[in-house]
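Review form for a predicted model. The reviewer records the input and the model, then writes brief findings.
Reviewer: anonymous (R2)
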Amino acid sequence: MLVIGAVLIVVAAVLAVPAVIALLRYTAHRDFERLRPRALVARDGQDIEVTGIAVAGPDGEDESRLARIACVWHCHEVLRHYWTPAPDPETGERERTYDPIAEYGEEGPFGLIGLGAPEDRAATVLVDPADAAADGIDLALQRVVGRPQKGVRAPADDLLPRVKGRISGLFRGETIEFEYREWLIKSGTPVTVRGRVQVRDGRPFLTAPPDDKLRITRTEQPPAQQAARTGRRALLLGGGTLASVGAGLLMLLGAV
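Model under review:
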């Protein structure tokens, strides 16, 4: 029993090293997934992907330009649908197509908090959407307006003054209609953000990398959490260490 007890103590000592490493990794992954500022500050200059809950930024909630809906971020575009100037050589008919003539994305930062945190908690990370591409976020408005007719007021003229930025384009062919579209992110929406960490005045921001855009994607289901996996590993190794120590001490004491 003395020999077996000594062997179990040695096994516990061997298991203790990976158990401590697994515990440290679990802590780091947990803090990262919960968007703890210190965990992201430590990754300053790195490209990362995080999932959290969108909340208002330092200036509070915003209002979308076209639909006038409360949100934390919004963007819109105007499309001009038209007939091509020249007919198709084979069919002899003109083709219907469109060009974007106005695009805008709100540049004010919004916040991100960890999954499961109360929505009224102050944002721990800020997202700078100055050069962002969004996918899967809510379409708040889509309206088609016929081309203006002389002496007739268009039914949706109220949207044009709300468009942010300059209307521009080649305006080829014959205009058919104009289409307004607006997307937004409401407070409390789960999103995944992929970008570069940039620390400003000690606070982590997610920004667009120099060679890419900031990617914002709505998330319906939280992804598998790495902290949970490393936590289970730390628990197994820690449990094995404690079990080996306990059994080894009992055998040593019993042999004395």
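Findings: The chain has three helices and 13 strands.
Further findings: Residues 2-33 form the longest helix (32 residues).
Recommendation: see findings above.
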